[in-house]
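WARN no homologs supplied; continuing
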Amino acid sequence: MAGMRDIKRRIKSVQGTRKITRAMQLVSAAKMRKAQYQAASSRPYSSLAWELINNLTRQLEIDMPLLRTHRHAKKVGVLLISTNRGFVGSLNVNLVGKLKELEKNPELICELVVHGQQAKTLTARMGKVIGADFPKLDKTTAIEDIYPLAKYLTDLYQTNQYRKIYIVYNHFYSTISQKPEIIQLLPFSPEVVRQSKEKQEVVISKKYGYNYQFEPEPTKVLEHLLPRIIESQIYQAVLESDASEHSARMIMMKNATDAAGDLIDDLTLSYNQLRQNKITTELAEITAGKIALE
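OK structure emitted
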């Protein structure tokens, strides 16, 4: 019977798909645990480093390129951190939606610095201005991988090309919760604004009354310290994005595996019903033939 053969073929096809999604789920789960650990482990350092530099800038009156504000600059630099691959639900699409919040001021031009293939593809399709593209490696991100990206942004800021620099990325909250956020990287600000569809959260760095002692002089210390702080903030955003990516992909693959299992159950039920109908029909024909011979 053709219907039974088609259903049997579909069952076999869906079973193969389920094996693939199940394998991808297990791989993503292993990567997710490692990425979550890295993101959570580096948060205290990143947070305290940000508080340190904001306390220093409020206490010291030092004229340095990275501490200046460029009010006459017409560009706003935006570092957009996405994934390289798909199967992450709406993770990357939400980033592009978040980007629109920075384009409300018509006097400023948003110039993108993309990190991740999906960010490049989506923004180019929308006709956005891409100033630079830094490829994202398909491996665990090391701090050394961030150096060229951080140097590029700081060089442009020091040459008075950007009024502000923002980072748009997916912040990891839990395995089932990842939300796009915007943080201001430069100029240094005591407030970190985390915005989501549900609410807007303003995280203010704590102000301590410490008296800092410098050796050597403050200018030389800050010349080396400020770039490291910027690198740590970018690195933390990349780690949060990686943890969000693997978590979202694991959930997607789990849902796909469960959906494939449900589809196999439905197809198996249909197959058994057709098979039972065929058996019933054959029994009826045999009975009718026997009665006709009597």
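Strands lie at 75-81, 109-115, 130-134, 162-174, 177-186, 191-195, 200-204.
OK
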